[in-house]
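INFO  loader      accepted 1 record
INFO  loader      residues=1009
INFO  predictor   begin
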Amino acid sequence: MISISNYTEDSYEQGLIELFQNLGYNSYSGYDIERDHKNPIYVDDLNIIYSINAGENRIAIDNAIEKIQDFGIGSLEDKNDKFMSFLQNGIPVNYSENGEEKATLIKLVDWDNLDKNTFTIINQWTVSEHEVKRPDIVVFLNGLPLVVIELKSPSRDDADVSEAYNQLHKYMEVIPSLFNYNAFCVMSDMAESRAGTITAPEDRFMEWKSVDGSYESTQWADFRTFFNGIFEKNRFLDILKNFTLFSKDSRHKIKIMGAYHQYFAVNKAVQSTLKAIESDRKAGVFWHTQGSGKSLSMVFYVKKLQKELKSPTFVVVTDRNDLDQQLYEQFTKCSDFLRQTPIQATSRKHLIELLDNHQANGIFFTTMQKFEESTDVLTDRKDVIVISDEAHRSQYGLEEKVDPTTGEIKIGAARRIRNALPNATYIGFTGTPISKIDKSTREVFGDYIDIYDMTQSVEDGATVPLSYESRVAKIHLDESILNEIDRKYDELALEAEDYNIERSKRELSKMESLLGAPEIIEDICQDIIYHYEENRQYELTGKAMIVGYSRAIAIKMYKKILELRPDWDDKVKVVMSGSNKDPKEWHDIIGDKSYKKQLENRFKDDGDPMKIAIVVDMWLTGFDVPSLGTMYVFKPMKGHNLMQAIARVNRVFKGKEGGLIVDYIGIASALRQAMSEYTDRDTKNYGEMDVEKIAYPKFQEKLENCRDLFHGYDYSKFFGNSNLERSNVISGGVNFFEHPLMEDKKKEYIKQSLMLKQALSLCRSVAKEKERFEAAFFEAVRSVLVKLHSDRKLSFKEINERISELLQQSIKSDGVISVIDVGDKISLFDPDFLDKIAKMKEDNLAIRILEKLLNDQVKVYKRTNLVKSEQFSDMLKSTMDRYLNGNISNEEVIQELIKMAGLIKNAHEEGDKLGLTEEELAFYNAIALPENIRDFYDDETLILITQELTEALRSNRTIDWQKKESSRAKMRLIVKKLLKKYDYPPKQRQDALDKVIAQCELWADEAVI
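INFO  predictor   done
INFO  writer      dumping tokens
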């Protein structure tokens, strides 16, 4: 039985090979395949393309195969985009037959006949380009390397999927030709498996948690669920064809792979639509919580139905122009994937023309208002699919209302659409649940097709949770005003449709004058500035959104903020619709359509100085800025309008604990009411968002945990006024955890202090000053510990700068904190640096620093010089073992480590003395290592052997000699032939050859890692 500690990366690799074999994939070892390593395609399988295209001209197929092996000049994204089009749609080629020029389409995959394709995996697939690399497993379809899988050992604590992600990106740099053909990448260490595309950041590599579309029990999915879920042959083809796309505009080209919840839900929606066409034409409601990719799910849905229904026409309906524009832009970015260009209807007449002129295909975008213009039938075609965004708003009602005053009959919006498109099939997409009392939505669309709730979305990492902080009391807003607002909105909701309510809001002059009073605007702006500067300015990228009650109030807030902070002119901007009736000064602030687009691009740019957007209605739905972490709300909202708005801050971003809603208008009860419509587990998990009740207690719990772990160390002087004292206390804290007996506590401390930092990010404004100070100390210690134990090259200057920065942010201290006074330049071989280390009071920290730096040097040797790496590794291990076992004191181990630094320095200089490069020195050490070898050869001869051997190996670098026996034999022959010329090794020392061969293999292996 194999224990997990012995279950290596190779063991895991072999286990996955078996899993793929069970799925029906062919399996080979890359070592056993004779091939040109410069070509990443598995040529033996590529011949299947001829049988897939049986009946096509062979020259045409030859031309197609030639096309996919020469993409010309361009970025990796451009080449991959071109290939994905070839893969999904076929390769257009021209050829000559009987003197006649012809054109045809050559398929790379038979999408309709699974068994006509060849599915293969190959482990250790060598590719030689800028460097020689060997990915763990490559998945081939018809010889094309579509998936690269990078594995990490399940038993190593220091190797995880993050390391695999970095490895994949290293491959993209040095063997990019392999990724010309890449559909997506996989990184896995057994405990965690994730898939993502060549453009996806690490936090957008997603797990695949289901093989049947169920969501309830998927908090954690093992590797079997992941690989069976994606690579079952039918599903794999479906993902490649219908759920992998490039989203493109003039600024960005992003490759997207559908997440598991999108894949299963879209397929359910397609089946539901096909049934509805044959019955009541109610395809149902697709409820996926905000931020989980609803608009992309629509794109996947349209793509899949195009094939299933033989080119239907889609009409996408929204209720606002800005929503229509956002959704239209999303589809336009995916137009290559959809194989047609979406069109926005400018009027009802234009929509009629579009429907009349397209008897097949067509993706048309329109707003609800265009159906008010007439009750005529737009088209009676039966192949029209109406996609309604946010399907449960009241304007989707089927009922007719009579105005009691005028007797005029008002027809519900849903009825108007039904009258205009009587034979269409209807599907609703929503990010919020249908109200329990909303019967009209079910009448129009039917029941839920699929529910992907907030709980599942957060568990999957598709969104982050939201937290709420009330600041109403801080601005002295009269409670009666809040009650009046609530009462008026409830009254309007009974009398009018939603988009008319929005119009009515602008007429509420009484509310406007109360909420726009100068003293209220002054109070709220001062508090927003205080809250932002003290608590949110340094969170993530500092992006924040202020939601104003009205356009006039938004302008007032903008002016007041600039009055209070004149230097914020580039930091804060107003984004709202304009009108010809607006004052001229508003025009200058609001700008035209192109200016708004410019602001959108700036706000989405994490590095842009524009940090705060003041909005009213725009950007509150369908607008994504992942780093946006804070929303200041000064506008009453309810139900789905409220939930859609606050979901602007629930997008995933690296280091983002959650989104913070800061309330200045009293939306707490509206939040609770809105959440009551969600699933039971959403209501249980996220029904209470108040930071004082959720985030702050969590922060205090983690704070107490960190205190307990620091038991025995007095850090009280950190709370004094001296920067020097603070830096001493931080160094002492690191030293405390670096004691050999504190290893387990140190790991737990790093974990707890990280959770402390994350919790504080949401509740900083409610945490007490002493708590923030204490958290700043814990974070400073964690920061040093993490860097001391990271694989990155250690820079104490960087540590000092980082700690100075975080302390300034957390406790507003001035001056530079220097945890370790080492100056600007740090070198293990600098006598002054070693002297400072030797004199450090924190001896545990000094030992850790020296061990870290020495280990870095040994790692360098391990990659190139077998002899020296073994010598120094053994020496370091022996010294540290004696220290950990208590056989030598702290002072003695420091002196031994410093002595070892001197030996390494001398070893570096040895090559210079002999006139050898570092590469040559490694072979020289192997050749000259055996005892008494100089009894047979002088230094001049040994150097000559070294240089000739190095040159001979360089000229045969492409030989794959590490694993393949035939290649190893060739390598041995090269080495033996050259050494025989010098009668090396002597008969008495035949074992010397083994060391030389081992060094040659290390040198070769380094070229393909």
